[in-house]
């Protein structure tokens, strides 16, 4: 071990000369006292333990003397890196950084962020800059309570260890004004609260809850926890009105059983307080009565759900001249489905689902069971057991919304499904695709474009066929003018506001100010249909209609629409009903 080399010769040579030059004994005594004090300080320095390597060198201590040198006897690294001759105690070289505790970013990404501090002589202040850059990378990407720290350490082989501290949530407190379970909120926030905590991800989870129809309003506050890397989240939720009653009427049914349909629907979006929904409806026409229900139960915090739905319909043909032969029909359906969003953000979503469906229908003539539809057995009964795999996609921008649905259906022979020697029967395969695009145009108008298509390689039973013409199809024609195995429908309409009532700055809805809107709706529809297998196509398999509609909405309370469509391709049809004269209407009234 080498001690600092002090200029001892100068110190000992100056004292006698200085005493000799002085005549005062008191002066000489003072000089000797200073000499003894200097020797005592020097002896104390010599007895101190040897220096060891530090994570960082001491600060600038340049005295200007070239004779002073500190050389530790044993060190783990060379504090004076090769190539740094000036101020050896001020600079050192880091060959690489080693990261611990990082999961949000890879070690390669972090090394890239501070690559400028490697393989060059740096100061302790620059080392702190590297630490700050890692922390800034985290905060800039939304990791608000994460950062980096360089702990005290012995530097070996030019490697500096960086401890990354990724923060999380200490607790989530949820306060709900209503019956909705706090676990429902907490489970849906989990996608945005997993460690490390990311503010952007948390905001996205909150925005998805804003879109939930069960929630009227939601707010959240993030505060500091017991430790710097832990935070507290407090969320307050106001539940929306979950109970809805709807009265509705339209002329969208086939004239054979009565085109004018009226009904009532009751639904609850939070029946048991866990976000489950129940809906039941009754509809009838002059020749039909239908009952439908559905129940949906959430199964996870990513909006996965199981649904059970079903319904029954009884019909009687009332259209002359067939009303004289007492044609009756009974049909029933059940469906169990599982749907799971796999991508879900405020601007886009992709949902996959699988359903098992059962349908069966039966017809009779003059009170006797009789096969009146293709594929039915000798008792007039058709049974279908099908598996359906569906995919749904939605994307939103500030000015547009695009939604699409695809469904593959496979008919099986399970559970006594109808099986014939020749199609059609309960065994089939088909694909159905639907899409709609809505875009906001100048003067607050909307362009709505939609399409619907079905393709099947073999003949289908009527329960699975594609209907074309009428209400919400090609307007200007009667309902289901064409019923075939395959078909394509395209429609476009332009909704132009002509009158606005109420406070335009207030949000519409039963909970806020009522706002009325009247729109003029020019439209054009086109469809083409054809059959598969040996079944001949309709004589006229194309429909084209155009017309004008008037649509009115009054908040969430009322929606009403009337349309007049003109058929541009002639097909054989009577003019007995409004529908067959190209006039369609619909009214939806939600009193509470």
From TrEMBL:
Comp. bias (Polar residues): 7-21, 60-79
Main location: membrane
Entry keywords, A to Z: Cell outer membrane, Membrane, Protein transport, Transmembrane, Transmembrane beta strand, Transport
Gene Ontology CC entries for this record: cell outer membrane; type V protein secretion system complex
GO molecular function: protein transmembrane transporter activity
The keyword Lyase is assigned to this record: no
Pfam families documented for this protein: POTRA_2 (PF08479), ShlB (PF03865)
Gene Ontology annotations of biological process type: protein secretion by the type V secretion system
Lineage: superkingdom: Bacteria
Region span, Disordered: 1-21, 56-85
Keyword Protease listed: no
Domain POTRA, chain residue ranges per copy: 92-167
Compartments, record wording: Cell outer membrane
Similarity-based family: Belongs to the TPS (TC 1.B.20) family.
Name this polypeptide is given: ShlB/FhaC/HecB family hemolysin secretion/activation protein
Organism of derivation: Planktothricoides sp. SpSt-374
């Amino acid at each position: 071990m080498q001690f600092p080399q002090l200029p001892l010769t100068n110190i000992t040579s100056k004292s006698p000369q200085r005493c000799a030059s002085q005549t005062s004994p008191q002066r000489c005594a003072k000089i000797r006292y200073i000499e003894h004090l200097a020797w005592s300080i020097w002896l104390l320095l010599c007895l101190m333990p040897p220096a060891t390597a530090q994570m960082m060198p001491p600060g600038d201590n340049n005295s200007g003397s070239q004779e002073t040198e500190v050389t530790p006897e044993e060190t783990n690294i060379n504090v004076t890196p090769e190539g740094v001759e000036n101020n050896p105690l001020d600079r050192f070289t880091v060959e690489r950084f080693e990261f611990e505790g990082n999961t949000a970013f890879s070690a390669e990404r972090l090394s890239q962020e501070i690559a400028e501090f490697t393989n060059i002589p740096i100061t302790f202040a620059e080392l702190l800059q590297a630490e700050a850059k890692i922390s800034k990378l985290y905060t800039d990407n939304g990791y608000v309570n994460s950062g980096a720290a360089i702990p005290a350490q012995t530097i070996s082989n030019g490697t500096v260890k960086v401890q990354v501290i990724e923060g999380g949530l200490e607790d989530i407190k949820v306060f709900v004004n209503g019956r909705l379970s706090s676990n429902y909120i907490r489970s849906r926030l989990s996608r945005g609260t997993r460690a490390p905590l990311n503010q952007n991800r948390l905001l996205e989870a909150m925005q998805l809850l804003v879109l939930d129809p069960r929630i009227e309003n939601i707010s959240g506050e993030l505060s500091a926890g017991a430790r710097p890397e832990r935070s507290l989240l407090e969320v307050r939720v106001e539940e929306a009105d979950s109970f809805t009653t709807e009265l509705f009427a339209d002329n969208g049914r086939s004239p054979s059983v009565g085109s004018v349909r009226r009904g009532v629907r009751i639904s609850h979006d939070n029946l048991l307080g866990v976000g489950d929904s129940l809906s039941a409806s009754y509809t009838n026409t002059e020749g039909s009565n239908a009952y439908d229900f559905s129940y949906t139960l959430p199964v996870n915090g990513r909006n996965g759900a199981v649904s059970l739905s079903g319904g029954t319909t009884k019909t009687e043909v009332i259209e002359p001249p067939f009303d004289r032969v007492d044609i009756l029909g009974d049909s029933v359906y059940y469906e169990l489905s599982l749907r799971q969003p796999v991508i879900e953000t405020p601007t886009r979503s992709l949902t996959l689902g699988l359903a098992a469906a059962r349908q069966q229908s039966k017809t009779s003539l003059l009170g006797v069971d009789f096969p009146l539809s293709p594929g039915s057995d000798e008792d007039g009964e058709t049974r279908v057991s099908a598996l359906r795999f569906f995919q749904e996609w939605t994307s939103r921008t500030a000015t547009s919304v695009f939604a699409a649905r695809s469904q593959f259906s496979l008919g099986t022979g399970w559970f006594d499904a109808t099986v014939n020697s020749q199609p059609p029967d309960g065994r089939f395969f088909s694909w159905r695709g639907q899409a709609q695009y809505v875009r906001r145009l100048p003067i607050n108008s909307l362009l709505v474009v939609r399409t619907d298509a079905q393709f099947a390689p073999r003949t289908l039973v009527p329960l699975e066929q594609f209907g074309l013409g009428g209400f919400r199809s090609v307007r200007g024609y009667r309902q289901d003018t064409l019923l075939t195995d395959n078909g394509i429908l395209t429609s476009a309409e332009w909704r132009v506001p002509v009158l606005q009532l109420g406070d335009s700055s207030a949000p519409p809805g039963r909970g806020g100010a009522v706002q009325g809107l009247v729109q003029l709706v020019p439209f054009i529809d086109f469809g083409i249909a054809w059959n598969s297998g040996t079944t001949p196509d309709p004589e006229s398999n194309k429909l084209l209609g155009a017309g004008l509609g008037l649509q009115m909405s009054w908040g969430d309370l009322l929606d009403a629409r009337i349309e007049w469509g003109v058929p541009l391709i002639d097909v054989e049809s009577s003019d007995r009903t409004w529908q067959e004269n190209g006039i369609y209407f619909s009214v939806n009234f939600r009193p509470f």
